[in-house]
Amino acid sequence: MTASTTDRAALVSAIAAAHAAERGPLLPVLHDVMAELGHIAREDVETVAAALNLSVAEVHGVVSFYRDFRTEPPAAHTVALCRGEACQAVGAQALYDATCARAGSLGDDVEVEEVFCLGNCALGPSGTVDGRLHGRLSADRLDALTRDWR
Ligand code: FES
């Protein structure tokens, strides 16, 4: 989603206001900003800090601590490969390395992420392709799943 700076600030302010009376509103606010805007921009941190009467450093600290909070817009497509122990035991490392090595061939706007257990351990190597869970992944299966991106 794209929003002008003014629209974005107004939306972030409205999200913060909706949670301001809750106990511990910061995480719900940040989750809602992520859901609405796809990432938490620098100016969003300042807006949230002002709305919740927190310092910019406090809000930035939370945003930078949790890897699920993005500070840059997401790529058009995402491949997230599990690096958890069960998946590592069935070839996740090699799949991850191979996928990173050929990330450019998957498409122009593709991000390869690592995750640590998707709850699909029995069917590893596991991963998600644009948010959809897949098990028993291989380089060939990833090629097939991402064919339309090229
Ligand atoms: S370790 Fe990969 S899904 Fe659990």
What does this protein structure show overall?
This protein is α+β, with helices and mostly antiparallel strands and 150 residues long. The protein has 2 domains: 5-65, Arc Repressor Mutant, subunit A, CATH 1.10.10; 77-149, 3-Layer(aba) Sandwich (Glutaredoxin). The chain contains 8 helices and 4 strands, in the order ααααβαααβββα. It has a 4-stranded mixed sheet. Helix 1 (5-19) packs antiparallel against helix 2, helix 1 (5-19) runs parallel beside helix 3 (42-52) and helix 3 crosses helix 4. The radius of gyration is 18 Å and the shape is elongated. The two termini are 22 Å apart. The mean pLDDT is 93. FE2/S2 (inorganic) cluster binds at residues 82, 84-87, 117-118, 120-121, 124, 126.
Quick synopsis:
With 150 residues, the chain is α+β, with helices and mostly antiparallel strands.
Task: Name the features.
4 strands, binds FE2/S2 (inorganic) cluster, Glutaredoxin, 4-stranded mixed sheet, elongated, 150 residues, single chain, alpha+beta, Arc Repressor Mutant, subunit A, 12% strand
